[in-house]
Design brief:
Elements (H helix, E strand, L loop, with lengths): L1 H24 L10 H10 L1 H12 L5 H4 L5 H9 L22 H11 L4
Helix pairs in contact: 1-2, 1-3, 2-3
Subcellular location: Cell membrane
Keywords: Cell membrane, Membrane, Transmembrane, Transmembrane helix
Protein name: Amino acid transporter
Length: 118
Amino acid sequence: MVWLGGLITLVTIVLWVYAFFDALTTPAQEARNLPKILWLVVIALFMPVGSILWLFLGRPRQNVAAQGNAPSPAQAASAADDLDPSDFAKPSDSPHPLGPDDDPEFLRGLGRRIDPDD
């Protein structure tokens, strides 16, 4: 029974820390129902209740579709169609930088640094 009390205490502390830092990092203009500083006071003073109130009443709403950040399923499918693995095997017409292991001058300099007597 003691472990249950410890588990509840641990969950309460984790919830409090999460809610406090979530409120702390939320932009002030996005906090709902109360000013941000008042939310921080409510969360700090009313430990379990303040955290739950912040999560349900104070956090900004995450409406991804209204913000236009998430692509529609049709857009996601067309973006996936653009990735053709056979395109990666074709040589490019534009000059691209060589990796260090492909650059003969770099390899010669590296050989000189490793064995200067050679």
